[in-house]
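Our working data are protein records whose layout never changes between entries. Getting from the letters to the tokens is the skill we practise here. To make this concrete, we reproduce a full record directly below:
***
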Amino acid sequence: MNPIHTDMTVPDLLRNVLENIHPDSNTFLIDFQNNRWEQISYKNALINIDAVSSYLLSIGLKKGDRAALLLENSPDYVYFDQGLQQLGGINVSIYPTLPESDTEYIINDSGARIIIVNTPFLFRKILKIANNCPSLIRIIPTFDGYQKYSENLSLQAGVVPFAKVIEEGKQLTQQYAKDIISAREGILMSDLSTLIYTSGTTGTPKGVMLTHSNLTKNVSACLDQIPVVDKDDTFLSFLPLSHVFERTATYHVCLALGAKIAFAQSIDLLAKNMYDVKPTVICAVPRLLEKIHDKAIKNATQNGGPKAKIFKWALAKGQAYREKVESGKKPGPILTFQHNLAEKLVFSKIKEKTGGRLKFMISGGGALPQNVGEFFGNIGLKVLEGYGLTETSPVVAVTEFYRQVYGTVGRILPGIEIAIQDIDSQKIHTIQTHESFNPDLTTEEGEIIIRGHCIMKGYWNKPEETKNAIDTDGWFHTGDIGKFYKGNLKITDRLKNMIVNAYGKNVYPTPVENTYLKSKKIEQIFLIGDNREYLTALIIPNQELLKETFNLKDTYFNQEDPFIYDIAIIDWIEQDIKRLSNELAKFERIRSFKIKRKPFSIETGELTPTLKAKRKVIEKIYAKNIDELYETAE
């Protein structure tokens, strides 16, 4: 049952759990501390949350003030965010991976008065720019030993450790108890809860204004769509809470339901943490799921023999069983027996590594290759795909638990309208809602535009950009290209990514790139061809496979030249390029390519924090190399 009722703000979610779902002695958060997994009760969390609120009130923070969170996922994020939220303060979460210049811009654009940081690396970043941020009055490190980084600096903002914030706040809680209640009750649904700065593939970051109404109604709609989650679930959180996907789909969903949140130690320890924590739900990005898929297949088949044969047989039986069930038919006794045997011999071993309790995973933040989704479905690990943007709070569509169409992002959420608009004529082909769902509906392709309770209030300090994004009829223009397929929304590309070749032919790069990414030899691919006669690409090879095949050392990938010119390696990649090109139209085929030694990265500015390629940045950095592709291609 959906626990959210009308007009609940973000801080109301936690209070509702304590009043109607769990006693305060129940576990709320799980964190790896002191070399063990510690369980933190609602009571202890609430003590720290109220302590944060009391401290913030004592230094003059008021409703509408902004505070920046430069934190990796942890209980401290929850304490600070909830302490801020119940005062009507505005959370300005900053990606830990952003460069100093972007971080400084966000602090100044938002006018953040306080910033909290939880690692020495992030603390040093803030210390370098703090005096360029006149609105800052407090810098709050959450770790011990922070003094050695700041003791010899002259800072206009005070540095106060989080331990002292909590300690002083606890002593002030009784004094400010009535003020906290009054502030919480005074929050309106239309008040801002957060500013989330979109990384964007071009231009300066824009602060997306999301209200309490945006966030809680989005969570409520998600729970209506996926009613199989409940108060007894455990979510493992590892995607950054600075991104709206993780904040909604894990943090706010758990706040609403009373489900537990376990914080992973790191992405490197994720496999171990899954085994230890035994989560029931995980939110993931497609790249992680692709890596799990690739590793599972490699481990099972690389040495051949009986093990590989059993694995391939099991996958085939899993697929046959899944397709029967999804078509609404009952598998026969022979197929059922074979599926049970495949489960015992193969699937259960893979599931055991995830902790053995997963109900499902949610994939968001990008397109999940259809074959990867089907692989997980074949082994009995359900992956639900979702779609949305920061500007839409974020979820506008997600797969229904009992009705899956692979390669789509599912059914529209309740309370939201999605239209497909012709790119050239601006004519709307169709408008669909949750209620109008038709499993036989397939439409033309166009730009996806959205209207409903999920749409942001606008961009902070940018009225013109807001006007350009939301038209006079209230439609938010996503810039994404898609259509409806079997009643579900299907994303095909980004409007800004569209390549128009020299002959005026439109090429959507994502489907083409996904075709070439079927090769195990290719890790990343970046398609080029705007205003050119044909397509070329920058290709990043699968380093592990490349090292194994050619007996290379790690130092090979650290050489100064960013590209690989070894003929044997080029021929090795080209074998798969030629084979996969047969699946594409002639104008979609790569005529020439360069092999890049290192992956595109956030640190070099080539990727956004959500791992989307910055097309203009990459084309500028490698302009000379790209020109060479058109000089040498036949």
Summary: The chain has 20 helices and 28 strands. The mean pLDDT is 93.
